[in-house]
TrEMBL record, chain A:
Keywords: Cell membrane, Membrane, Transmembrane, Transmembrane helix. SUPFAM superfamilies: Cytochrome c oxidase subunit III-like. Residues 31-207 form the Heme-copper oxidase subunit III family profile domain. It comes from the Bacteria. It is a multi-pass membrane protein. The chain crosses the membrane at residues 29-53, 73-93, 100-119, 139-163, 184-204. Pfam families: COX3. Gene3D superfamilies: Cytochrome c oxidase, subunit III, four-helix bundle (1.20.120.80). It is found in: Cell membrane. Residues 1-20 are annotated as: Disordered. Belongs to the cytochrome c oxidase subunit 3 family. This is Cytochrome c oxidase subunit 3.
From TrEMBL, chain B:
It holds the Pfam family COX1. PROSITE patterns: COX1, COX1_CUB. It comes from the Bacteria. This is Cbb3-type cytochrome c oxidase subunit I. It comes from Dyella lutea.
UniProtKB/TrEMBL annotation, chain C:
PANTHER family: CYTOCHROME BO(3) UBIQUINOL OXIDASE SUBUNIT 4 (PTHR36835). Keywords: Membrane, Transmembrane, Transmembrane helix. This is Cytochrome C oxidase subunit IV family protein. The keyword Cell membrane does not apply. InterPro entries: Cytochrome_c_oxidase_bac_sub4. The chain crosses the membrane at residues 14-37, 43-62, 74-96. It comes from the Bacteria. The lineage of its organism: Bacteria, Pseudomonadati, Pseudomonadota, Gammaproteobacteria, Lysobacterales.
Length: 208, 686, 103
């Protein structure tokens, strides 16, 4: 497979640009972003450790079973499968399937992301209506730091998508926008993985 | 007070009562800070240098300039923290069975600022500065991977340092020590703004350090010159790499610890509080998950510096290069497995203490390997006892003593006995002063001629060395004795007459150390005055071994007119021996360099505003600072900067000028390297 | 240009990733919703599913695999995993032990 072997040659781990678009220094930028993400992963891991350490300390307040619900968590999981739509956007960029497809897929990803954020806000407000405030207990404090930190990351990701959509309109696909989209893709997929950990070890574990 | 009433809504909790008017010592310190800052600002204005500083330094993204600014920041903060140490030593010597000349509250602030500054605003900027300056030159690169990010890191660190300096005037600072242990630092026990100063200063610096770690690691992975394989890098680059990796993975733990503490304090959450299900042990655990790797973050670069020194001044290749590299990596990984030894007494089961105690002792093995390698590097070498090397020798002896007391502390039952005594204080100063500070001062003495084109005066360097080393032993050996006798650390007053003689000796040692600082300042002043006598523009005053010595002193902004081709270890040394060290002038290609950028200083200022607003609960300031930073970053991403080209004629002019210096310089043999004959060209035959 | 072959093959990766993600998350949610097993067993299975999904995302969305030429870059991820393992496992070992001893 001659076509295959050309794109098999990777300059850096994970997502790559097409061979004909790649620039030698792209590897540096993307690798730097990987290192940043790994640092961020340690941050999330520690927040999980804090949650696991304090999760049982409900201090007489509501516990996980009182505040978590299965359906919203499942809905949010579906929305974060926008990893797939972002993947199509990456392919549209890599194989030059037109700006319309690229922008359309970015917009779809953005909408799914915003939907996720909206649902989460709805959840938080609902929890607070039942008196499950972060000040009530260590368990709730830990919950309100772990999940909103992910929320904050997704919000920044959404801002980043908007910025990229504007920059794509302004200057099209060039070296800078390409590597930025590449990094944004890494970021988005990474957030999806963090969410998998959150629904498994926070929501599902709490509802057992 | 009417002013306070007016200030209320706009200035949060800030009012005139923040001025430390109640204590003459604190007021004096505040006045020194204010007049010092005004004096420097006035001097710059008088000389009309603001524009120059802004254009050539503050907005510069050149790794060499950023490195120098980091070191300047570190030296300023070192001066403050050393003086604080002297005040504390004098207080303890004075306050035996009576109250001393400062209050317990003030004493608490002193040990908190001393520790926080020494770690976050002295050791970290110093090593970051040295790595910044030296590492890209050593691997044959033109800059770090992300020059603008480098500037941002610097400015965030400087903003954190500025916040600590501001706390001198708009007091008080935290009394919770450099580790800020909860629940003491919770709102209930520390209701003032002191802990908030500590939290945000440390947070600014830890963000800067994380970014720096990423930057350095990527630079070393991706920007090495052709032929510079990882196992051909100078050892300093290896230690820089391991330190960067530790920064990347350990800093998040500090960020989490301080962020959760802040949430407790600002939003009333219950992470480390005494009630509401909080658990202060989670804080200790998080803090030392960062804190132990941090110890190696600040020690490893010095190991690298000493490796360079021993080899250069013994005119021998480094003994056991591979074992040194492996030992460095082993230490870096092991440093993630020992954090519990900082809280053996916290109440977990004995088997856990045992496991972490054994892991701690294991670190002694790679460190021992290193010590033997360094000794064997000097063995049968023609050792030249220049000032930088003297610091190295003092390090070897002193560090081993400190390491031995560390092995004692690694045994949990022993730790239970001396826990929270001055024995511990003696131990970690015995590691960090030789292991970090001596290394950094040696680096400063060793690479100063590279950065500025003239050597530092040897004589004052030796005086400084003598004061520091003797002062160190006098100041800290008594603390081992006092600790074994049961004197608690961080005591503003002591109540045992038997402690007095030891405390007096320790105070004498502190005086000597301050004299050592003064001697360093004098050395710098004298060297600047007599710089013509000590010029080494040709660039190689010590018969150096690695690539940074193959450039002129100071190096051109692009470092290398042509990227070097590396054939093996000790690249420049072998080039000199085979006559390829100084290639003839040729046709040069234009060189692309990044443009200066104001985003670094801007983000630093916005970070400082945010932090200051948060400390004093000035909502609008914190909000504007955060929003401003977000807007600045997004706005900056829209600016397209093609970079700046140094054209071939300019490169040729610079290179020609340097070649003229090289031709005029007389090669100097090693016996004469410390006298004015040394113009920076080594006599290779000698 | 790499042509259609590359595009289709990579598209297949993403589709496989999507199917795996849906299946694995769906299975985890279903287990908790219908609770056929004891809580302990379910938790173990949910954790295993989470790890599988982690691997699936890395493989299909982030395109990390084991047969790369750039092994030193892959090492970064493995090293991170090791450090995270050390930190999290160590912290839980210590804190849960302390919790038990305070009972």
């Amino acid at each position: 497979m001659s076509a295959g072997s050309a794109s098999e040659r990777r300059r850096h781990p994970g997502l790559n640009l097409h061979e004909s678009d790649a620039h030698p220094s792209d590897g540096e930028v993307v690798f730097g972003f990987w290192v940043f993400m790994m640092s961020d992963a340690v941050l999330f891991a520690l927040l999980f450790a804090v949650y696991a350490s304090l999760g049982a300390n409900t201090a007489g307040g509501p516990g996980p079973r009182d505040v978590f619900e299965l359906d919203p968590a499942a809905m949010e999981t579906l929305l974060l499968l926008s990893s797939f739509t972002f993947g199509i956007a990456s392919l549209a960029m890599k194989y030059r399937r037109g700006m319309a497809l690229l922008q359309g897929m970015l917009a779809t990803t953005l909408l799914l992301g915003l939907g996720f954020l909206g649902l989460e806000v709805h959840d938080f407000v609902g929890m607070e209506d039942t008196g499950a405030l972060p000040q009530v207990s260590a368990f709730l404090s830990a919950f309100y730091v772990l999940v909103p930190t992910h929320f904050l990351h997704v919000s920044l990701g959404c801002v980043w998508i908007v910025v990229m959509m504007v920059q794509l309109r302004m200057s099209g696909l060039d070296r800078i926008t390409r590597t930025r989209l590449l990094r944004l893709g890494l970021f988005w997929h990474f957030l999806d993985i963090v969410w998998v950990m959150i629904f498994s070890f926070v929501f599902l574990r709490g509802l057992l | 007070m009417r002013i306070e009433a007016l200030a209320g809504p706009w200035l949060g909790r800030l009012s005139l009562s923040a001025l430390p008017t109640d204590s003459p010592v604190a007021m004096g310190a505040a006045l020194v800070a204010v007049f010092g800052a005004l004096g420097v600002a006035g001097y710059i204005t008088g000389k009309g240098k603001w524009r120059y500083l802004w254009r050539e330094w503050f907005t510069s993204v050149d790794h060499k300039r950023i490195g120098i600014m980091y070191v300047v920041l570190a030296l300023v903060m070192l001066a403050r923290a050393v003086i604080e140490a002297l005040v504390m030593r004098l207080q303890q010597a004075d306050a035996v069975n009576r109250s001393g000349f400062i209050s317990a509250e003030h004493f608490g602030q002193l040990f908190s600022t001393h520790g926080s500054i020494m770690i976050f605003f002295m050791a970290m900027p110093f090593l970051t500065g040295v790595i910044n300056y030296v590492m890209p030159l050593q691997i044959g690169a033109r800059d770090v991977s992300f020059p603008v990010l480098n500037s941002i890191s610097l400015m965030l660190t400087a903003a954190g340092a500025a916040l600590v300096m501001i706390s001198l005037v708009l007091a008080p600072f935290s009394t919770g020590g450099w580790s800020g242990y909860a629940p003491f630092t919770e709102l209930r026990f520390s209701p003032g703004v002191g802990v908030d100063y500590w939290i945000w200063a440390v947070t600014l610096s830890s963000i800067g350090s994380t970014l720096t770690g990423i930057n350095f690691a990527v630079t070393i992975y991706k920007k090495r010159a052709p032929g510079m394989h990882l196992f051909r890098m100078p050892l300093f680059c290896w230690t820089a790499l391991c330190t960067s990796i530790l920064m990347i993975f350990a800093m998040p733990a500090l960020t989490v610890a301080t962020a959760l503490l802040a949430l407790d304090r600002y939003l009333g959450m219950h992470f480390f509080t005494s009630g509401g299900g909080g658990n202060m042990m989670v804080y200790a655990n998080l803090f030392w998950l960062f804190g132990h790797p941090e110890v190696y973050i600040v020690v490893l670069p010095s190991f690298g510096v000493f490796s360079e020194l021993f080899s250069t001044f013994s005119a021998k290749k480094l003994y056991g290069y591979t074992s040194l590299v492996l030992a460095t990596m082993t230490i870096a990984v092991l440093s993630f497995t020992v954090w519990l030894h900082h809280f053996f007494t916290m109440g977990q089961s004995a088997h856990i203490n045992a496991a972490f105690g054994i892991a701690t002792m294991l670190i002694g093995i790679p460190t021992g390997v290193k010590v033997y390698d360094w000794i064997l590097t000097m063995f049968r070498g023609r050792v030249r006892f220049t000032t930088p090397l003297l610091w190295g020798l003092a390090f070897l002896v002193t560090f081993v003593i400190g390491g031995l007391s560390g092995i004692l502390l690694a045994i949990p039952p022993v730790d239970f006995l001396v826990h929270n005594t001055t024995f511990l204080v003696a131990h970690f100063h015995n590691m960090l002063i030789p292991g970090t500070l001596f290394g950094m001062i040696a680096a400063y003495q060793f690479w100063f001629p590279k950065a500025f084109g003239f050597r530092l005066e040897e004589r004052w360097g030796r005086v400084a060395f003598g004061c520091w080393v003797i002062g160190f032993y006098l100041a800290f050996m008594p603390l081992y004795v006092l600790g074994l006798e049961g004197m608690p650390r961080r005591s503003a007053e002591v109540f045992d007459e038997a402690f007095r003689p030891w405390l007096l000796v320790a105070a004498g040692g502190a005086v000597l150390i301050v004299l050592g600082m003064a001697a360093l300042a004098l050395q710098l002043a004298m060297s600047i005055r007599h710089r013509d006598r000590n010029r080494v523009r040709a660039g190689d005053p010590w018969d150096g071994r690695s690539l940074e010595w193959s450039t002129s002193s100071p190096p051109p902004e692009y470092n290398f007119a042509k990227l070097p081709e590396v054939q093996g270890r000790d690249a420049f040394w072998t080039m000199k021996r085979s006559g390829r060290a100084y290639p003839p002038l040729e046709r040069y290609a234009p060189i692309m360099l990044p443009e200066n950028s104001a985003i670094g200083p801007l983000l630093g200022a916005l970070g400082l505003a945010t932090a200051f607003g948060l400390v004093w609960r000035i909502g609008w300031m914190a909000g504007l600072g955060t929003a401003g930073a977000l807007v600045a970053v997004i706005g900056w991403s829209f600016v397209r900067r093609p970079g700046r080209t140094v054209d071939e004629r300019q490169v040729e002019r610079t290179e020609t000028r340097w070649h003229a210096v090289l031709v005029a310089a007389v090669p100097v043999s090693r016996e004469h390297e410390c006298d004015p004959r040394n113009r920076g060209l080594a006599d290779v035959a000698a | 240009m790499g042509g259609d072959g590359g595009f289709r093959r990579e598209l297949r990766d993403y589709v496989v990733g999507l199917v795996l993600a849906l299946g694995l998350s769906g299975a985890a949610f279903a287990l908790v919703a219908w609770a056929p097993w004891s809580a302990r067993t379910t938790l173990g299975v949910v954790a295993a599913l989470a790890v599988l999904q982690l691997v699936a995302h890395f493989r299909c969305f982030l395109h990390i695999d084991l047969k790369q030429s750039h092994r030193d870059d892959l090492q970064l991820i493995l090293f991170t995993a090791a450090i995270i393992g050390l930190m999290v496992a160590g912290s839980l070992w210590i804190i849960l032990n302390q919790n038990r001893r305070m009972m």
